[in-house]
Amino acid sequence: MAVTRTFSIIKPDATRRNLTGAVTKMLEEAGLRVVASKRIHMTKDQAEGFYGVHRERPFFNDLVSFMISGPVVVQVLEGEDAVKRNRDIMGATNPENADAGTIRKELAESIEANSVHGSDSDENAKIEIDYFFKPEEIVG
User: Fold this and answer.
1) Which GO terms describe its biological process (predicted)?
2) Which of 15, 23, 104, 127 fits 108 for a cystine, CB–CB 3.0-4.6 Å?
3) Domain that holds residue 67
4) What is the CATH number of the domain that holds 14?
5) Which residues are annotated as a binding site for ATP?
6) For the chain, how big is the Rg over CA atoms in Å?
């Protein structure tokens, strides 16, 4: 399996509860390496642009409001089959359906406040990484 990169966000519900380290530890224990990380407070324009694919969905405005409600930590993760590995450790979107030991099962508050976002494909990982990071900010 090839070493690839993926994108991750530690969401406002997790940063509010000071879980950045706990989430990062779970990612690292799953075999992912953080090669870029920064704590930001997304603007409304950033959140709307990032989640633009969901613009027509009924939850779009609530999602944007949530994502700008507090700081987030955006990260580039690297490892073998990084997208799949990250999605496996994140767990199902709904924490009630997530497997024990996953980030969402252990740390999420609800389906909306589910602590983390992760890219769903290698193609989207590149787009999402480029949205928040310059190449020189990624140090692998």
Assistant:
1) CTP biosynthetic process; GTP biosynthetic process; UTP biosynthetic process
2) 104
3) 3-137
4) 3.30.70.141
5) 11, 59, 87, 93, 104, 114
6) 14
Total domains in the fold of the chain: 1
Q: Which helix (H) or strand (E) holds 76?
A: strand 72-80
Active-site option among 68, 91, 117, 119: 117
Q: What pTM did the predictor assign?
A: 0.96
pLDDT in tens, 28-47: 999 999 999 999 999 999 99
Q: Report d(CA 99, CA 130) in Å as an integer.
A: 30
Catalytic site includes residue 117: yes
Query: Hunting for tokens 């930590």 — which residue is that?
Result: 73
**pLDDT, position 130:** 98
Binding site, by residue number, is: 11, 59, 87, 93, 104, 114
